[in-house]
C-alpha cells in the first residue's frame, strides 16, 4: 500500500478530536518555520497565530474556552505569505506552516480526515522541498533524488514523528489535559521544526 493511501486509511479510523490533535501536532512542529520568517521579514503577526494554535491545544485539553474557529480562519488567512511577493526559499516553509494551521482550524470545524491528511501532506512536502533545495544534486536522476529524500535523516524523523503521534492517539480513547500536554511537548520538539530550524536562528 502506498504511503498516502496507508495514511488516509489510518486517519479515517480516528475520531474527530484525534484528527484535530494530529493536525495540531504537525502544525506545532511546523510553527517555527513561520515564526523565524515572520521575525526576519517583519511579516504577519506570529503572536496572533501562536495564540490561535494555543487555543486549539487548550480546547483539546479542556483547559480553556472553546476557540471560535470560523472567526480565526480569516486571521490565519491574513498571515499566509504570498509566494509571488517573497521570492525566497524561507517563504515556502512559512507558507506551509500557516496553511497547515488553516487546515487544522477547518478540522476543528468539520472533523474531516481530509484536512488532517492535508496537514500531513504539507509537512511532508515541506521536508522534501528543504532536502532537495539544501542538499539535492543536479546530477541525480529523478529516481535517485526520490530515494535520497526518502532516506534522508530529516524525512525519517518526519515519518517517525508522525507514526509516534498516530500511535499515541490510537491508544487514547478520550482527550485529557495530561495526554494533550504530553503530545504538545512531543510536537514542540524543544523549539526545532520539521526542517531542523528554530527561532534561535534569527
Helix content: over 70%
- Count of helix runs: 9
- The stretches of 5 or more residues where confidence is low (pLDDT under 50) are none
Mind summarizing the main beta sheet? none
CATH superfamily: YP_001051499.1 domain like
CATH topology: YP_001051499.1 fold like
Q: In the CATH hierarchy, what is the architecture at level 2? A: Up-down Bundle
Q: Tell me the distance between the termini.
A: 41 Å
Helix/strand order: HHHHHHHHH
Content-based structural category: mainly alpha
Tally of extended strands?
0
Organism: Marinobacterium lutimaris
InterPro entries: DUF416, YP001051499.1-like_dom_sf
Protein name: DUF416 domain-containing protein
Sum this structure up briefly.
The chain is mainly α and 202 residues long. The protein has helices at 3-12, 16-41, 46-61, 69-77, 91-110, 113-135, 142-150, 153-170, 177-188. This is DUF416 domain-containing protein.
Question: What this model shows, in words?
Answer:
By secondary structure, this protein is mainly α. The chain has one domain (3-188): YP_001051499.1 fold like (Up-down Bundle). Helix content is 71%, strand content 0%. The chain has nine helices and no strands. Helix 1 (3-12) runs antiparallel to helix 6 (113-135). The chain is globular and about 50 Å long. The N and C termini lie far apart (41 Å).
In terms of topology, how is this protein built?
Blueprint: H1 3-12, H2 16-41, H3 46-61, H4 69-77, H5 91-110, H6 113-135, H7 142-150, H8 153-170, H9 177-188
Helix pairs in contact: 1-6, 2-3, 2-5, 2-6, 2-8, 2-9, 3-9, 4-5, 5-6, 6-8
Amino acid at each position: 500500500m502506498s504511503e498516502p493511501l496507508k495514511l488516509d486509511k489510518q486517519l479515517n479510523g480516528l475520531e474527530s478530536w484525534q484528527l484535530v490533535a494530529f493536525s495540531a501536532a504537525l502544525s506545532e512542529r511546523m510553527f517555527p518555520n513561520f515564526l523565524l520568517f515572520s521575525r526576519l521579514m517583519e511579516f504577519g503577526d506570529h503572536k496572533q497565530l501562536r495564540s490561535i494554535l494555543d487555543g486549539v491545544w487548550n480546547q483539546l485539553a479542556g483547559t480553556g474556552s472553546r476557540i471560535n474557529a470560523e472567526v480565526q480562519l480569516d486571521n490565519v488567512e491574513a498571515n499566509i505569505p504570498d509566494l509571488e511577493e517573497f521570492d525566497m526559499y524561507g517563504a515556502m516553509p512559512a507558507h506551509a506552516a500557516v496553511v497547515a494551521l488553516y487546515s487544522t482550524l477547518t478540522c476543528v470545524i468539520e472533523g474531516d480526515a481530509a484536512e488532517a491528511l492535508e496537514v500531513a501532506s504539507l509537512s511532508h512536502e515541506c521536508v522534501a522541498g528543504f532536502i532537495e533545495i539544501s542538499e539535492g544534486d543536479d546530477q541525480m536522476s529523478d529516481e535517485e533524488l526520490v530515494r535520497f529524500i526518502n532516506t534522508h535523516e530529516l524525512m525519517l524523523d518526519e515519518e517517525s514523528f508522525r507514526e509516534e503521534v498516530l500511535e499515541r492517539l490510537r491508544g487514547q480513547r478520550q482527550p485529557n489535559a495530561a495526554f494533550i500536554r504530553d503530545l504538545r511537548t512531543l510536537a514542540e520538539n524543544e523549539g526545532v521544526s520539521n526542517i531542523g530550524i528554530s527561532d534561535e536562528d534569527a
